[in-house]
């Protein structure tokens, strides 16, 4: 088994080829690994997990989000083999997205808070069907942007809404949310995978997220990279090759 192509990375490359420039956020001048987006001294590539998943994910992103080094949708695409990513537009919809949503192998779930949706559309569980695989549609954007995408995307209107009931607050420290109960996209995806019976993948993604956060923040704070942490130990069973030699 080999690593799957990362649809978010492919989307970034496509946007760059179209002449769209990355945002110049704080720290943008630092030399980053092209593959994992972390500052080179704290590269994450050796810690990419390898795990099987029955579920698929589809990330709906904004133009800015696909370029942000702190984006965690990238981590999901690193872990889940069947990963897709699309730039959202109010006036146009990618035909490949519509084809994905109508593909009979998938049962799409749009992940969104149930409090904003008609109750008859909301579910808190994933139906495991032998004929269809779960496909989680994740709005990978700020909360304000995600609400706009939800309201202005009529092709999502027929999809069931998976409303998560997380038992713990977000551990994400790379950006601040105005609401503490909001989870970052990687945390949301891990909860979805667990509901779908992909428990190993959920575990791997959670650990990968924690390792990414540590590498990212240690680099930002100019601290030495430390791979002797509980998160690295949790991730290790899912890592092959070069990471194993680091212990």
From TrEMBL:
Alphabetized InterPro entries for the sequence: DTW, DTWD2/TAPT
Annotated protein name in UniProt: tRNA-uridine aminocarboxypropyltransferase
The protein's enzyme class: transferase
EC annotation from Swiss-Prot or TrEMBL: 2.5.1.25
Keywords, ordered alphabetically: S-adenosyl-L-methionine, Transferase, tRNA processing
PANTHER family reported for this sequence: TRNA-URIDINE AMINOCARBOXYPROPYLTRANSFERASE, TRNA-URIDINE AMINOCARBOXYPROPYLTRANSFERASE 2
SMART domains referenced in this protein's UniProt entry, alphabetically: DTW (SM01144)
GO-annotated biological processes: tRNA processing
GO molecular function terms noted in the UniProt entry: tRNA-uridine aminocarboxypropyltransferase activity
